[in-house]
Design brief:
Rossmann-like_a/b/a_fold, 2 domains, Rossmann fold, 338 residues, single chain, alpha/beta
Length: 338
């Protein structure tokens, strides 16, 4: 399922943590690992790192032409050095197929370009680099890649304030029964089984999806008669195709609970089929993003895996999207599955 992994390398702590996760998964899946460094002509490289690289290049040059080294050459030298060290580390950890690529341009665009051209299955990158903003904010490289990648993407955050990668021991998967959520459950279950770690499935009872989307997410025949009646479009002609953000909730908590139990049971079957040994489910009510983050903290999750689209249908960069909110507030790394 995971054949090619791309990991951007920039020398930051977060990039190192992303590399550690990448090597672990590459070994488990016997996957091709592509290490990518994008040279950008900004001022984000730490001064001590730049100065050390410049001295190395100057020391290597001899003769009357020796002198100050062009900035572009220093930046390229830094990139090649970082890639060589990352490649050596990956090989020592048992990755059989490791490639390095150095490129020039806008980081997010070049990462997306290589991911598409290489038919990558997964991008794993740090949530922060050496940028001035020092955070996962709108417009940052990690944010753009997370939302625009042509494949699944992991943003690696600190877990409980740790500055080093400490492995994946617990994975949380929010599911709403949508096709994309089912894909997230499948991939997360596969990863959990290969790593031998705990998997938690969570369903947050939401009033947002239309009645049509709710019906599409379940097997209506398995619901109680009263639940089927509540979901009957003939009884809700206006709310049939309209979000609860516009029309007041028309579905009772009891019916949402019944829907959630069915979706969680489906997720459990997938996890068991994939070979997950440690599994639990959580059914909860409230704001989806807030509750997902709360459960992640409670379950001490190291990774949250989410579908790129929920029952609402559209994937967007809007600050109100659940994936956006979770990725910004999560206490751990986040995987968006496409």
């Amino acid at each position: 399922m995971i054949r090619t992994i791309i990991t951007p390398i920039d020398g930051s702590v977060h990039a190192q943590m992303a590399l550690d996760l990448s090597t672990e998964l590459a070994v488990k899946y016997d996957a091709r690992l592509v290490l990518l460094h994008v040279v950008t002509h900004d001022d984000n490289i730490p001064e001590d790192l730049y100065d050390a690289a410049a001295r190395e290049l100057m020391a290597a040059e001899t003769g009357p032409a020796a002198g100050p080294v062009r900035r572009s050459k220093v930046l390229e030298h830094i990139g090649n050095t970082l890639l060589r060290k990352a490649q050596d580390l990956a090989k020592r950890k048992g990755v059989k197929n490791v490639e390095t690529v150095i490129d020039l341009g806008e980081a997010s665009k070049r990462i997306l370009h290589h991911a598409e051209n290489m038919s990558a299955d997964l991008i794993i990158m740090g949530s922060r680099g050496f940028g001035r903003l020092k955070g996962l904010v709108l417009g940052s490289v990690s944010h753009n890649v997370f939302h625009l990648a042509p494949c699944s993407c992991v943003t690696v955050h600190h877990t409980d304030g740790k500055s080093e990668y400490d492995g994946i021991k617990s994975i949380l998967v929010p599911t709403d029964g949508s096709d994309h959520a089912d894909k997230a459950v499948e991939l997360a279950s596969d990863i959990a089984a290969k790593l031998g770690v705990k998997l938690s499935l969570v369903y947050v009872m939401s009033r947002g999806p239309s009645l049509e989307n709710l019906r599409d997410s379940i097997d209506m025949a398995q619901l109680s008669e009263s639940a089927r009646n509540e979901l009957d479009p003939a009884k809700h002609p206006i709310a049939e195709h309209v979000s609860a953000a516009v029309i007041p909730p028309v579905i009772s908590k009891e019916v949402l609970n019944e829907i959630g139990e069915q979706i969680l049971a489906r997720g459990q079957r997938t996890a068991v089929e994939k070979g997950v040994k440690s599994l639990n489910v959580v059914l909860i009510d409230g704001d989806p993003a807030r509750k997902i983050v709360q459960v992640a903290k409670r379950e001490k999750a190291d990774l949250i895996a989410m579908g790129s689209r929920g029952l609402g249908g559209a994937e967007s960069l809007l600050s109100g999207s659940v994936s956006y909110k979770v990725n910004h507030a999560a206490p751990c790394s986040c995987l968006i599955v496409r």
